[in-house]
Amino acid sequence: MDKNEEIKLLKQLGSGNHEAFNTLFLQYYPKVKNYLQGFLKNSADANDLAQDIFVKIWINRASVSEVNFFQAYLFSMARNTVYNYFEHILVKENYASKLQNLPTYSNLIESELYAKELSLMIELAIEKMPEQRRKIFTLSRKEGLSNEEISIRLNISKRTVESHISLALSDLRGILAVFILFVGKIYF
Description:
Strand content: under 5%
CATH superfamily of the largest domain: RNA polymerase sigma factor, region 2, helix turn helix motif
């Protein structure tokens, strides 16, 4: 298509002439689609984007009619469309990635329930410990006293304190093992 014919068609397009639009569409659509497909490697997406470009040309026909180099204008639109397409995909992928990393509300509730249940089981296990062991463990873990401070307070040897703490921790590891076994069966 020569330059004068193109300018004439653009002026007609500016006044809403459908035939002028059809002529420009038939002339340039395959070129724009092939250009887009070279970037996208996907015929369907290239087809959709090329159609979108021509829809924009029709919508903005008044301003497009003032363009001096239509082909350059058209391929500039196509290049910008490709940039926007890839930017949109990147935004969607980032959003999807962030959504996957967020725990769901039901998972949060479930985790909270398991944590409360585990805490309750630990408290029950501590209550069932022999009195001396329970007292030593409580002073150590809940009140933060050192083994030496506990031995002085209870008037027992430091070795006895260490032994009771070791036995208490062993009891709790057993409870934890049962709990993990139970929770593991739920998830797997």
